[in-house]
Every structure is written in structure tokens, then in C-alpha cells.
Amino acid sequence: MTGDGLWRPASGCGPGCLPAAHAPDVSLPRRVGRLLGVLGMLSAGVGLAALLPLLPARDRRAALRGWARGTLRALGVRLAVRGRLPRPPALLVANHVSWLDILALLAVAPARMLAKREVRDWPVLGPLAAAAGTVFVDRSRPRDLPGTVGRVAGALRAGHSVAVFPEGTTWCGVAAGCRPGRGFRPAVFQAAVDTGAPVVPLRLAYRYAGDTSTLPAFLGEETLWASVRRVLGARDLSVAVTVAAALHPAAGADRRMLARAAESAVHPSPVRTPVRPAATGVRIVRPVAPARVAAEAELDLAA
């Protein structure tokens, strides 16, 4: 995927990162049924977009979570959740592989999202994103970056969690050489430093027929419809969301070091020198859960 610096980072992925074309695993009637189910969920999303601004925060999060889980179910994607999220507010940061990432995050942590401005104009999803409090960023105007970071900080101060894909672009999620060269962009981490909100790294991993796979990846010049068709035709596709230990930045912490610490948590085999959080104003707090209470929750959402 091509890029041009700060706002449009590039990955090393190409057509070869996607699985070889093959006949769909599921029958045509099943694929049509899944598609109709997805269209039904999108229609429900139109009504939800109108309803969300009227709901209390707790009910709004529950509605978003239910909608995202229902849409994954319609697509035939199973969701596995490992670990526990802290209470809002928190800056949630994740790797970025697919359009499915947004559904997976909303199904686990219905936070406000940071998204490119173009998403606002998407049918159904654009109004739903706006109603959910998405912070939109214009990547064609780098001078707007401080204002965007300020809006993220404002959402955190107001008690909302915000979810971000700091790699800035999708990539296959498998080949280390394909990762965006500059890794997690540090700018948005300043919002966590300014507000004292914890940074929670989330690792998204996709498996197809039991093996790690790039099948759901959305890369380069491929159309969204081509990627959706591949997902609709997969019989055994799952996404696992793993919640890593929270990072608590001290006042005045270095946002670049905070970004590197979060990236190391999302990608356990970092390509750069490991970070020593204690020396950079970042304190790691591992989630504490009662014995055997939801240490790993498997949510079977297969159609």
C-alpha cells in the first residue's frame, strides 16, 4: 500500500500477501444468506445511528457492542476475547489488518474511534460512526494534527475510551517485513500523556481453518467488495482480540517511548530495541482478575 509520509504511511504488502484464489468453502445459498444477514445488520445500523445520541453512555456502548457482534455473526466470523479491559477512559491501540478490525474492537470495547475523514461519507457506516462519537482526521492536512490530538484528549477527559490504529494503514499481519516501516505513530499517544489515561494495547489475530491467515486482510488496490466476498465464502474464520497489560504514562512521559512500548506489546517480537518502561515514565499494570474469572472468554459468534 502506497503512502506519503506522516498521514499516509506505507506497508510492504502486495498481492502476494493475500491467499491464492480458490473456490468458496461454503455453498452459494449459505453465502447469499450471510450477505442478506449483513445487509440486515447494516439496515439496523441506520436506525441505531439515529438512536445512539439519545442513549445514556452505558446503553450506547451496549447497543454498539450488540450491533458489532451481530454483524460478525452474520459474516460467519467467530470472536475470541483474551484478557480484561480496564474501565473507561483509556486509549486503546491495536494493529490494523482489515475492515473487520473495527467490528472486532466494537464487539469487545465499544469505544469512540479515530478514523479518516472519508469514513464520514460512507453509506450507513459513516452516520453510525458519527453518531458513536468518532473523531475524524483529515489526512490531507497535517497541520490539523494538534487539533486531532486535542479532540482525542477531550474525549478521554470526558470519560470516554478512544480506539486508534496507530500503524496508520492496514497490512497482512503476518510477514514482519510488511509492517509499516515507522511502526506506531506517536502523535496520538500525547493525548494519553496529557490526560493520564492508560494506554491499552490490543492484539488482533485472524485464523482460517485453524491456521494464521491473511484471508481477511484488506490491502492495496483491492476493492472492499472483493475482500467482503472472500470473508463471506470462508467456512472457519475467527478473530482473537488479546488485551495486553495497561501502560500508565507518568506526567511528562515521552510519547515516542510510550508508542514503542505499546507496539512491543502488540507485536511481541519487536523489530527495534526493547523499551524499558520504568526509564521512560511508563508504568505497566497487568490486568488483575479474580481466579478463573473470564481469563479467556470465547464468544462463539459463528453463523
Number of strands: 11
Structural class: alpha/beta
Shape: globular
The string of secondary-structure elements, in order, is HHEEHEHEHEHEEHEEHEE
Q: Which sheet architecture does the biggest sheet show? A: 9 strands, mixed
Helix content: 25-40%
Radius of gyration: 19 Å
Average pLDDT, to the nearest integer? 83
How many helices in DSSP terms? 8
Strand content: 15-25%
Poorly predicted tracts of residues: 1-6, 270-279, 286-303
End-to-end CA span: 32 Å
Fold and architecture overview:
This protein is of the alpha/beta class and 303 residues long. Helices cover 33% and strands 17% of the residues. It has helices at residues 28-51, 57-75, 100-108, 125-131, 145-157, 189-195, 224-232, 255-266, and strands spanning 77-82, 91-94, 112-116, 135-137, 162-164, 199-208, 211-212, 237-243, 246-249, 282-285, 296-299. Strands 1, 2, 3, 4, 5, 6, 7, 8 and 11 form a nine-stranded mixed β-sheet that branches. Strands 9-10 form a two-stranded antiparallel sheet. The longest helix has 24 residues, at 28-51. It is globular. The two termini are 32 Å apart. Residues 1-6, 270-279 and 286-303 have low confidence and may be disordered.
List the helices and strands and how they pair.
Layout: H1 28-51, H2 57-75, E1 77-82, E2 91-94, H3 100-108, E3 112-116, H4 125-131, E4 135-137, H5 145-157, E5 162-164, H6 189-195, E6 199-208, E7 211-212, H7 224-232, E8 237-243, E9 246-249, H8 255-266, E10 282-285, E11 296-299
Parallel strand pairs: 1-8, 2-5, 2-6, 3-4, 3-5
Antiparallel strand pairs: 1-11, 6-7, 6-8, 9-10
Helix pairs in contact: 1-2, 1-4, 2-3, 5-6
